[in-house]
Amino acid sequence: MVDQHTHLQAADLEEEVQADHPLRIQDLTLRDGHQSLFATRGRTEDLAPIAEEMDKVGFFAMEVWGGATFDSMHRFLGEDPWERIRTLKKHATRTPFSMLLRGQNLVGYRNYPDDVARAFTERCCVNGIDVFRVFDALNDFRNFQTVVEVIKEQDKHFQGSICYSLTEERMGGEVYNLQYYLDKAKELEDMGADTICIKDMAGIIAPYDAYRLVKSLKETVKPPIHLHSHFTSGMGDLAMLKAIEAGVDIIDVCLSPWAYRTSHPAVEPLVVSLRGTNRDPGFDLRRLTKCAEHFKEITPKYRHLLDDRITIIDANVLLHQTPGGMISNLVNQLRQMDALDKLEQVFEELPRVRRELGQVPLVTPTSQIVGIQTVNNVLFDSEEERYKMITAQVKDLCYGLYGETPAPIDPEVRKKALQDYPRGSEPCSCRPADILEPELDQARKETEGLAKDIDDVLIYALYPTTGKKFLRWKHGFEEMPEEVKPRTLEDVKREQELVEKAKRGELVEKPVKEAPGKGQNLRTFNVFVDEEYFKVEVENTDSRPLISSVTPMGGQAQQPQAQAQPQQQPQPQQQPQQPEPAPSEPKQEKSAAPASGAGIPVEAPMPGMIIRYEVQEGDSVNEGDVLLILEAMKMENSITAPSAGTVREVRFKEGDNVQKSDVLAVVG
Ligand code: CO
Q1: What pLDDT is attached to residue 543?
Q2: How many A from CA of 539 to the centre of ligand 1?
Q3: Is 152 domain-assigned?
Q4: How far is the CA of 204 from the centre of ligand 1 (A)?
């Protein structure tokens, strides 16, 4: 018999009755909504104007920050991430603000030392975050310790999260079974969690699993239970409804314009579905509609970022138990490497790599770690040798730097990964942050004269390369590049008109005859029209956009577009930002291979960004020495010397974007 507090009952009376267990609802539109649909590109100027109205709805909290926002804002939007919290807070004073905090990874992709974690969490509290949804990609809660201490000291709400994962079609099996989640929930209760969240980042929780899980959690632990899921697989609303029937206390939704697809169930239909039941949240539908109108108005600015697949749901997620964002990352990565035909091999290799790496949940950053290693294996391994190109992050994972994996790591893989690993070949089993040296003082020193306050220092401490770039823009040391500046709705309209003209053939002749050189401010758009796909490059000159090229790329319209991952936006072919100082002898073009006999060119195996060179021109190196670190898809890859010799040329510098096959260095 289901008790009346958890069972959905229609009220007998015609007049409104007060629900005895009203469902609490958190809105995600301002964070996970645009992170899921528009690569986290939502701008403060578009979000702030509606915050005041949303504040009146009565949400449990509004998620406004964390996750990828910090990275995306400083890197792609030229916005100070801290400023967003403060600005929104001016408009929404009543509803608590929540953020997604990746435990000791904070809002980055690696574990930061305790001094950085403490300072960062404190600044989140001071700047206006009230509710902290803390998770760890391995569900290793030792990675919560430091940030939770600060959250508690600051008297804020600690929401402990468990990453929901599966290794088979339904909940069960050796690792992710019911008992696993109940044990994790008890651990969180003991840590003082104010609420407990089941974080289903992939949208793979099936409705009846959600029911069983929530019901058991309610019987096992005291803190309110919160369910976070995504619509990706199409089960989102069904899972929510079953969770509501099972007595879930809080759920996550978005306003309808930014709901569904890889985002979340929409709030409006749920509110109406629950009306008059004892779970009625009591929201005003008119107010929600008014809020939704705003998002409809601004969405044209972001439409080009939307995954334009024909189907709203991604059945591949059901098939592979893999987050949708991860699948589109894999597709994009393969496409960039001209290896899209290897997709099936990647799907075959993926569960194997995941198992060998300890059956980790697939969430940032482990989804990237597993995904990229899988692609590396498919592309670079030979019959005789697996794991030929191991990323730095896989080595760290094998060492224990991310924490304890849910299942043991394959000993062979671990041994290979830790060969020549700088911290030693014996993995560590301690709390990962215990072996990290403090970094904050060093970050302070390195930003002297550039950082104005601790918030600036933290941007650099979390993201040294792009953070420094951003601080230079922010404080006027460097002009902000055109592509990070906001677009107006007028810009969007003009661009659309130009695209229309181009499609009619009216613009094609002109640029062919007198095409100007492509400049730094070029933006590239993928335009999909029925079965056709155009690559359109637009550049602003004299404040009027000029179409630099329109390339029909027929027959690719069905393929999914870049989504949710900043790195995979189609990028214009980029020349190194600054020309080299005038060389004393004639030099070849940057990317051209050198004449034979002039050394071995070391090419980029994939497109990415140069994190740093470990060598300088003139250095002598041994075969296998690390020449440089190339960041691709947020993973760091060591590029090593193909043979012993002298570094003859270093062709790029820190922060440069490179394309596949660009020559990065010449050794000989
Ligand atoms: Co999410």
Answers
A1: 45
A2: 34
A3: no
A4: 12
